[in-house]
Amino acid sequence: MASNQNVADMNQARARSSTDPEKLQVFLWGGDREWPRKRSIVSILSGDTVFDKARRSFLTRTQMYQRALAMTKRLFELKDQHDWTSDEVNLAVKLIDEPLPIVLHNAAFEPVVSSQGSPEIKKQFGELIAQRGIIGCYLQTELGHGTNVAALETTATYIPETREFELHSPTVTSSKWWVGALGKTATHGVVQARLILPSGKDVGPHLFFVQLRSLEDHRTLPGITVGDIGPKAMAGYAGIDNGYARFDHVRIPREYMLSAFASVTPDGQYVQPPHAKLSYAGMMYIRSTMVISGGWTIAKGEGATIAIRYATVRRQGNKGPNGLEQQVITYPSVYIRLLPALARAYVFILLGRNLGKAFSDMSSRLATGDTSLLAEMHATTSGLKSLVSTAAIEDLETARRSMGGHGFSDFAGVGRIYADYLPGATFEGDNFVLDQQVVRAALKAYDALVVRKTRSISGLTPSTAYLRSLAEVTPSLSAASRGWTDPHTAIVLLERRAAAMVQDRAKHASEPDASSDHRVARAVTDAFVGAQVGEINRDLERSVGGHEASVLKNVYLLYLLTSVERGLVDIVSFNLLPEQATSEVRSDPARSLRMAIKNLCEELLPEAIGLTDGFGFNDWELDSALGRYDGNAYEELWKRTQMEPLNRTEVPDGYEEYIKPLLVRGQRLAGRSKL
Amino acid sequence: MASNQNVADMNQARARSSTDPEKLQVFLWGGDREWPRKRSIVSILSGDTVFDKARRSFLTRTQMYQRALAMTKRLFELKDQHDWTSDEVNLAVKLIDEPLPIVLHNAAFEPVVSSQGSPEIKKQFGELIAQRGIIGCYLQTELGHGTNVAALETTATYIPETREFELHSPTVTSSKWWVGALGKTATHGVVQARLILPSGKDVGPHLFFVQLRSLEDHRTLPGITVGDIGPKAMAGYAGIDNGYARFDHVRIPREYMLSAFASVTPDGQYVQPPHAKLSYAGMMYIRSTMVISGGWTIAKGEGATIAIRYATVRRQGNKGPNGLEQQVITYPSVYIRLLPALARAYVFILLGRNLGKAFSDMSSRLATGDTSLLAEMHATTSGLKSLVSTAAIEDLETARRSMGGHGFSDFAGVGRIYADYLPGATFEGDNFVLDQQVVRAALKAYDALVVRKTRSISGLTPSTAYLRSLAEVTPSLSAASRGWTDPHTAIVLLERRAAAMVQDRAKHASEPDASSDHRVARAVTDAFVGAQVGEINRDLERSVGGHEASVLKNVYLLYLLTSVERGLVDIVSFNLLPEQATSEVRSDPARSLRMAIKNLCEELLPEAIGLTDGFGFNDWELDSALGRYDGNAYEELWKRTQMEPLNRTEVPDGYEEYIKPLLVRGQRLAGRSKL
């Protein structure tokens, strides 16, 4: 097979697609202004040598960190040059596919100071923070404590005499750990510490503003020990200086407590926060943004662009009448893995945008003291963060594996995306801990509706709406009337599954099995997402319209059907599948669902390249030899290989020292002094 | 929490374990001679500075390659010094947890030349190969072709005039690719190439011996272009120089064809091989060894040692009466992930050893021309390779994630094991392609038994024994009579599931759904493994005996029950679960199974540390801060962090160039020339 067959295959696939990529791009990016703005920023970044990616595969971690600094500095030069807004700078940071230390300033430090800082803090530091005249980090996790914030060991003791707090790390395990940008970069930080009142009373974790390094020479301030925590697994997050910090009786002024929701009076009296969960809003915000970023991650590495493009140009197996082997994407075992992931990307991106809107909504209410949406937002973001990050990690590995051996090359690009995305499963709330939160909220809603009857069906919130199916009379859907091509069938099944499982869980509340939290949380979140997808679907005529709307309906249907298939064990166990009423013994009642998925995949197959083009990534963004836009995968692999440092010399360093003596020894033992 | 609480927790956990680690070690390593031999080699390696691992987290790939060479050279010095046999050298290579270029010589080059080489080749090179006077590699995969060997493009054309073969790479995509040790190390290789007869007839891929580099100066021989293919994903396989090679009409003597099973006469006539699959025996051998190595991989990173040790010393959550937070291992959501993986390690190691014996058996028969065991071995190794490598990758990531945020530190050690193990899913036969082989064999057996009736129940081979359940009269197990504590219940269910699925698949042979191959293959292999575990179980009194036998019975039961749980969707769909006959509507029939798993896990919990000690890893082998034998996880993390190159200076390189200008700009814009 000549390698330009790759290009021919890609051209042909692109010609077969019936959608207009630009319509999809505008749809996914959220509007006529958003998409061109994104494209313009990518065009500036990808044309700038500072952001060139050609040699980064060969850099050490120290070099990757310096590269991240260089990119950060350049970013603000570009901001000044192109007059970018801070939203545009934040977008640019996201579009650079290497985590930068400044991310923590943008996503955690700035929002938390701005939403919870005292007026004094905002006056003194607000503009400096906005302009990056200081760089901040967020010191929460400790060496010995992660998700369980309540058990943090760092203390902030109020000293009424001097009106100061004293930050202190009493143990090795109380060292702040994993803090992004703390290791070498940040000048300031917000520290979570247990507030100790003059009475000795411990009122739990609160946030404190602290300067870490001198603005004169960047040296660490007295009493503070900081450093980098070392390399991350699989070379992930290389550009970020995740760091540690210990505080040895470090004093900060009383005003440095972030006191919008809780404060200490000058004489040391504690003033209560209006809502217990209020200080978690910051983490909730980060979690909510993880839904859309998970969607874009899958879009990039996965089901999505790289894997589908390579599966389109890669040929393996039996030769067809044209003398060419079969395109890998046409194998059921391949498309059944990639197309559902493509659908997940389309769902999570939209879901993420909706969640973003809901979050702003909640924030404006919070600003007026209205906390009514907080609990619902907590349950929703917990469930979605766990669902999306788990799915994204799984899909990335599925994508990598679908590419066969070459998926293991660094040049394939998916390994890098995977390694950088991986911590998403455990940071901002370990997924298994979040599952518990989801189950707790579900049981509470069930109790209010069914046991205590303090809430009615009409009073159910979106995250508990699935409970309405408990009130339905008919126990099962009629397959004949609806069928799998109607999204309603899947949506109802997902709701019934969630309701049945929550009910069963409530029944066995005192003795759940060991995987119950995980399964119940997934069912509840699947039901919520199912209903959301139903709404996105109904809105398609308006939001995208035309032929694209009808293709996207199939994409969203595929999401729903595969979501049912993933939850099948519980659906079948609770006897909810339409076919279970009628099917014969020793015949698989799930066959019609699986065949519907297969047929839908085959219908979508000619659209796959168009749908991935719809994400709108350029080659600089993907940085993948296998996922090139033009399909020229093998030639690009060859080209990149020529840059490998080991190939600089014909005979490797180490030949004289190691290889030659080994061979000479073996030749001597084999009785051959000369060959 | 003081950090030496870690050590106290580990000591206490160890004291609670009721098994004798040495008995388990002898059992797992296969005997009274094997275990001390392994321990002695580890003791030599871990005491040698060449194998020290302290700084490897900070090396570049070029340095990792040189490190691999240095270790290889030292290995043979140690062999001479300690008079190691070649089995002992191979064991030492396995015990070094970095892939070495010599691995390909040991696992592929040497066996294939010795089993298929002509007498001339063996005479000329046999002793040189044995003594490593030459270093070999195995050139199969091409840039454009992987698992589908039949489509390889490299040609070997026989030239009767000079009695030579001409090796040629006609296209870019025919470049040999991924070949371990080819990039910079190997002097010789075995090449898979399509044999073209003088008549022009193409008789498909055959093996040819070729010299690649000069033994004088290691320079590449004329007509050959070689190089390294570049870094691998997630920094995996860093020490191996996976390479590419192109041949430009390279001539080799007629005797260089590996001709034990097929050959060309001097005048160019082709002599047929006795069995079509014979030349695949090499890959089958590698696949068969992947079962035991998968087991040891899980044992190390997973369910096993590192994750269980860290979960034992890590405390999170509510404080108990002793004022300490709860040990993480006691959370159901944690032990339900780790203990089944521990059980998988115990199963796969034993299974791998049995397979090793079966393989030797088959090989001795093959040597006499008896190919009767070949098809069975092919089906078995295909299914097991796919099952074990898929499970090991999943378990490694499960383990990493169970450790929370710290699992993402390179110092945790699991990421490295993962990155190096990852290609196992796609090399030596892509798992999804292997699934198809398993299904093909299953359908053939079903056809012979049920349709054509050419085989009887008593004539079923071990890999198809599950079909016996088709002849059973009773459609479901009585839960009351057997129950989940009897391994027989799970084994029978796994067999019935496989039989029902194969039958259903045969019924829909012309139109299987898209994931059918994968699900049917898994069911068939699960049934085979279930029966094997039953035999291992029955043998425990003899093989290990005493109290340890009764603990291991529970470990093997846990494997069986979780294997049923993983196959539950099909078991429930085919109505096979005992409870399905009697259970009420809207009650989960799988609850009794899941509660049995939970109870079994809780029973095994106090044994977990003892069972991981039973694998017999020392700290050098694990190289994990979190998996230390003494439990001192946090102090070790701190210690390793101090070696990070970024921590050498207080102010990082790059401050003056990047950070300072950024801060100065921001301060200027914020209107603060000085703070």
Task: Write the SSE topology.
The structure is a homodimer of 675-residue chains.
Chain A: H1 4-16, H2 21-29, H3 34-46, H4 61-82, H5 86-95, H6 102-116, H7 119-131, E1 136-139, E2 155-159, E3 164-168, E4 176-179, E5 188-196, E6 202-211, E7 224-228, E8 243-247, E9 250-253, E10 263-264, E11 270-271, H8 281-301, H9 305-313, E12 315-319, E13 325-327, H10 332-367, H11 374-402, H12 414-421, H13 431-451, H14 487-507, H15 516-538, H16 540-543, H17 546-566, H18 568-573, H19 591-604, H20 608-613, H21 619-622, H22 633-641, H23 655-669
Task: Describe what is shown at a glance.
Chain A has 675 residues and is α+β, with helices and mostly antiparallel strands. Chain A contains 23 helices and 13 strands. In chain A, the strands form four sheets. In chain A, strands 1, 2, 3, 5, 6 and 9 form a six-stranded mixed sheet that branches.
How would you characterize this protein structure?
Two copies of one chain form a homodimer. Chain A is of the alpha+beta class. The longest helix of chain A has 36 residues. Chain A contains 23 helices and 13 strands. In chain A, the strands form four sheets. In chain A, strands 1, 2, 3, 5, 6 and 9 form a six-stranded mixed sheet that branches. Chain A has a three-stranded antiparallel sheet with strand order 4-8-7, with no helix packed on it. Chain A has a two-stranded antiparallel ribbon with strand order 10-11. The mean pLDDT of chain A is 91. Chains A and B meet through helix 4, helix 7, strand 12, helix 10 and helix 11 of A and helix 4, helix 7, strand 12, helix 10 and helix 11 of B.
